[in-house]
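Cross-posting from the chemistry board since nobody answered there.

I work mostly on the small-molecule side, so proteins are not my area. We synthesized fe (ii) ion and want a rough idea of how it might sit in this target. Sequence and SMILES are below. Is it possible to get a predicted 3D structure of the two together?
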Amino acid sequence: MKDKEIQNFFYRLSQIISTFKDAEDMCTEVVNLIAPSSDFKRAIIIMKGWHGEFHTMAVSGGTREERVELKHIRCNDDTTEFIVKAMKDRNAVVVDFLPKELCSSEITANAIISTVISKGKEMGVLIAESDEVDETKVQVMDSIARYVSIGLENHTIYTEWMENRIKMTHEIETLQLMYEIGKEILSNLNAEEIIETVVLMIRRIIPCDGVSMAVVSEDDRDALKVTASWGTGMDKGEEIGSDAPFFAILKKGKSFYQNDITLDFKNSPILLKWGGEKNVYSYFCAPLMIKGKLFGAFILSSVRPAWLTNIHIAIIEKITTQVGIAMGNAKLMEDLEEIFMGTIKSLIAAIDAKSRWTKGHSDRVVNYAFKIGEKLRLNKDAMERLQLAAILHDVGKIGTYEAVLDKTEKLTAEEIEMIRKHPAQGADILMPLKGLRNIIPIMKHHHERYDGAGYPDGLAGDDIPLGARILALADVYDAMESDRPYRKGLTKEAAVEELKKGAGTQFDPAMVKIFVDILNQG
Ligand SMILES: [Fe+2]
């Protein structure tokens, strides 16, 4: 290199170093400046990662294939030892051989290795291959390495400053996220939907190339099944067997960070697929523990090595703990609701069955209500509410004595009072079940009359919920048609006549018209 060339070279180098940018981009520009040139055939910067392993930061010169290959070198013990030894001498050293992993295919006579230092510690090496080495080249390489060191230090200071700012923003965002997760879980008890939402939320605040959620498979406790996936290359429903290296660690409730996938992908099909097809370089798994047991795991992946900071890891762990607690509660609620619903349904069946007069009543009411709802073109949600309310409409009778329900003689005022309490009692029974709260108005008002003379609240006209107006018709019609201990059931025609008579007083006339049409068609 001539003096003028050296001057130009360092002018360009100082421009690269003084511009803040991604450390990897900076290193790439530096190596591209060095090689290929008349002095150097190839240049490579290798840096130490978080866990003491080495990875290629930038490479230039040689053939394209070589660059690709060198970019993906995984330093083995010998290479690592070579680099560590070369780094110890902080001044540039000249070697006449390189380990084969670091070599280009051509036989290179010499290479200059200079040490990159950050915060007073040896952090990596800059290797430049050259056919001929002289004192000037060594000095130039030494200076370049120092420039790179300053550049990386500036970059670290800048990154730390940015990270502190980001940390604050992140804390606010994490709080917001926690709130959203909480809200999501409180308003939605479906575990699958919760998981999908949380995966999307994690994506928003953690820089990564993919996030998946896997849950412990129900049929095989020693496998995880992917339930939500974005960008990791895992498919929904795919199984991760216990041979995955992180499985045992997750089971202990600990998270797992692997910044070089090749170190443990040998026996795991899922990791082989990642390493081979998906270009995943590193991944992080956090367990989702529910009441001390492994329920599932969040898996984040990256096409870069060592991409997560401690702050990111802390945030992910915080989120998974929070989700675990919340889902534990959600699951408990789900289990309780299931048990409760089951109990109530069997009680309804028992109420219907304990008296031969009311056997199958609830089922028939559901059937009539469904037909009316269909004619009204109610939407899916409204139909579901209507049917559920129809099944449960007399749940309040659980508290009414059998003797009163089955009585053949005229009821006393006290007994009538007792029976009239059943809609309100039903509302009290269902109130603790969050998932059933929206059917309470339908169930509670199925004995209101259109003219306002019904019970329990004396609502009139359109103040009575539509579902309740439908249910009133279906309920009364079935009661009229059925035999009772004190009277025989009416014929269909007679019952229809009664409905018509009640239009506008007992029943909503519009509903009567629809129902009568349905009955006449059937
Ligand atoms: Fe009733």
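Reply from a structural biologist on the board:
Welcome over. Reading the output above for you: Residues 3-160 form a domain with the Beta-Lactamase fold (CATH 3.30.450.40). The chain has a mean pLDDT of 81. Happy to explain the token format if needed.
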